[in-house]
Amino acid sequence: MHYQTESWNSYLPTKPPTTDSLQLILRLAAENAVVIFSKSTCCMCHSIKRLFSGMGVNATVYELDEDPREKEMEKALIRLLGSSSAVPVVFIGGKLVGAMDRVMASHINGTLVPLLKEAGAIWL
Amino acid sequence: MASHGVGDHILSDSMPSHHHHIQPHTLHPPNTSFINQEGSAFDFGELEEAIALQRVGINNDETKQTLYAVRPRAATLEMFPSWSTKFHHTPRESSKSEEESADSESALNTLASRRDTTRHRLQPPHPPKTQPQMEMASASNNPTTGITQAKQLDAKPTPPKRRGARSNSDKVLDSKAYVQQLESSRIRLAQLEQDLQRARSQGFLIGGGVVGGNITSGAALFDMEYSRWLDDDHRHMSELRTAMQSHLSDGELRIIVDKYIAHYDELFCLKEVAAVSDVFHLITGMWTTPAERCFLWMGGFRPSDLIKLLIAQLDTLTEHQAVGIYSLQQSLQQAEEALSQGLEQLQQSLITTIANCSINDSMHHMAIALSKLTGLEGFVRQADNLRQQTLHQLRRILTVRQAAKCFLVIGEYYDRLRALSSLWASRPRENFIADHDSSCQTTTDLQMVLSSRNQFSNF
């Protein structure tokens, strides 16, 4: 087993790409209270970032298009979500919340804020 | 009337016998009804010359051919369609011409009202015998003589007649009649515009959604489905209303309320399909009435406006419910803000892309712009999602009775907004000289009524 150093900040064991990327994603998601996978060119991602910053949440954002492993991570996210668009995807407290519509729905039905509080992302 | 040959049988058929001033061989000053209604705007000089020239070389029916040379000028005649129709004295129009000749004023009115139906006769293939002659006759300064000459040209050679001079009073009458005719046409045009606007605001025009533009099939389909949805909405609303008034049990009311929510879910489904086929139709609000379009946010109503609307109506809230409603309002404002900012970024990047289209690279940039436009779809869908979630959340927070009242309020609000649109479209305009004074009058009348009412309120 050998470790491959990325230009990024993490050490990764080499494994078949798909599981590797999925593992990477999940690992990254667990590192912070609120993790958003985004692309710098995507406007819906911009929206979701604004939503969290508007709530006072300091989210960790990973821009896929600035990463060499973009394609694989995209594929992994698509498989994870079951939707055609990879980004934006939000993880709160290491757990998958979903894409924009799920985040919006949970915000409207009042479940997003408790989730954020639980993860320590906001304080009342 | 005595028959004077082939040419004038047309006139004699159309004219009642008492209009003998149209007899071919007499030259009465043109106090005839319809013929006098020419205005002074025409330059008949050329036509007169042409007629004179024709007259000189005329001996037989072959002149009809040369008369056609003057026909190109008929194009100018079509500016005043009612005039041309006067002179289409074919047997098929004989009955109408009788009315025309009755009286100056009434002729104007009948002409103005029939202008729409008879206008199409401007460019039909005329029976060659008399039409061009009649049109020329209408254009001449001396209509009586013109017709006289025309008929003569057709019938048989007769000695040329002296042209009757037009008196000043006749000219004044003519110009007055002309102005009146213009005004009546203008009124008619405005009425047509209003009808069109009304029909459009009611969504009846499927093929004419945009003036001069084409409506896509997706948009047309959505418009049709939406109008059906609106009918369903009225049905649901009346059901809700009767349910509220008849004090049904909670269980029965819940069924009705849930049906109303499902009705809205249907709308969001329709909009989702429409967003894929024609996002511009949704986002520009061409499917709504103008008043709704004024308050449009991302292809529909602004959900936080709904809450503002309802807060006044919800007076019997528990503390828990009040907290729920206010936090809903806050989340909605945050969500709307986020979506609006995302959409703005999309617009900015589109502007940059389109602006940077160089000559060499234009296709590439256009392709990028196209891919960015697909993002619009996503925003409209998210906005609709927000609307749908709002309605569902309201249903969750409120009791059945409160929810029923709320949905009734929402439905009635949008009904009133749509009605406002059609009222606005059909309001009396102050564009006409004729109407101007009357509208000023109504304003002063209104003020008088209001002031008198104030006086009475003191008692």
Could you provide a short overview of the structure?
The complex is a heterodimer of chains A (about 120) and B (about 450). Chain A is α+β, with helices and mostly antiparallel strands and about 120 residues long.
Describe the overall structure.
The complex is a heterodimer of chains A (124) and B (459). Chain A is 45% helix and 19% strand. Chain A is an alpha+beta fold and 124 residues long. In chain A, the strands form two sheets. Chain A has a four-stranded mixed sheet, with helices on both faces. Chain A has a two-stranded antiparallel ribbon with strand order 1-2. In chain A, α1 (17-31) packs across α3. Helix content of chain B is 68%, strand content 0%. Chain B is built from 19 helices and no strands. The longest helix of chain B has 37 residues, at 319-355. Mean pLDDT of chain B is 71; it is low at 1-42, 61-78, 87-155 and 205-212. At the A-B interface, α2 and α4 of A face α16 and α17 of B.
Q: Spatial order of the strands in the main sheet of chain A?
A: 4-3-5-6
The backbone outline of chain B, from C-alpha atoms, is: flat
Uncertain segments of chain A are 2-17
Shape of chain A: globular
What is the CA–CA distance across the termini of chain A? 46 Å
- Oligomeric state as shown: heterodimer
- The low-confidence parts of chain B are 1-42, 61-78, 87-155, 205-212
Write the layout of secondary structure elements.
The complex is a heterodimer of chains A (124) and B (459).
Chain A: E1 3-5, E2 11-13, H1 17-31, E3 34-38, H2 43-54, E4 60-63, H3 70-81, E5 89-92, E6 95-98, H4 100-108, H5 112-119
Parallel strand pairs in A: 3-4
Antiparallel strand pairs in A: 1-2, 3-5, 5-6
Helix pairs in contact in A: 1-3
Chain B: H1 9-14, H2 45-56, H3 63-67, H4 74-77, H5 81-86, H6 94-100, H7 104-118, H8 131-139, H9 143-154, H10 168-201, H11 217-245, H12 250-277, H13 279-283, H14 290-294, H15 303-311, H16 319-355, H17 362-397, H18 400-425, H19 433-457
Organism (chain A): Forsythia ovata
GO cellular component, one term (chain A): cytoplasm
Pfam family, one (chain A): Glutaredoxin
